[in-house]
Amino acid sequence: MKTSLSQNICRLRRENGMTQEQLAEALGVSFAAVSKWEQGVSRS
């Protein structure tokens, strides 16, 4: 079974002990963007 981008983002974030807010700050994007990525709502 293939893992989706949203599942990979969520899994890797958790494996690295990061919150969505921490990942957003590290990437220079909004918390809402990370949340949408993990939900598979948006890929941009």
Name the poorly predicted regions.
none
Helix/strand class: mainly alpha
List the total number of helices. 3
Helix content: 55-70%
Number of strands: 0
* Helix and strand element order: HHH
Mean pLDDT: 91
Overall number of domains: 1
Q: What is the 3D form?
A: flat
Distance between the termini: 24 Å
Return Rg in Å.
10 Å
How would you describe the oligomerization state of the chains in this entry?
Answer: single chain
Question: Main beta sheet: strand number and arrangement?
Answer: none
Strand content: under 5%
Structure description:
The chain has 44 residues and is mainly α. It has 3 helices and no strands. α2 crosses α3. The protein is flat, with a radius of gyration of 10 Å. The model has no long low-confidence stretch (mean pLDDT 91).
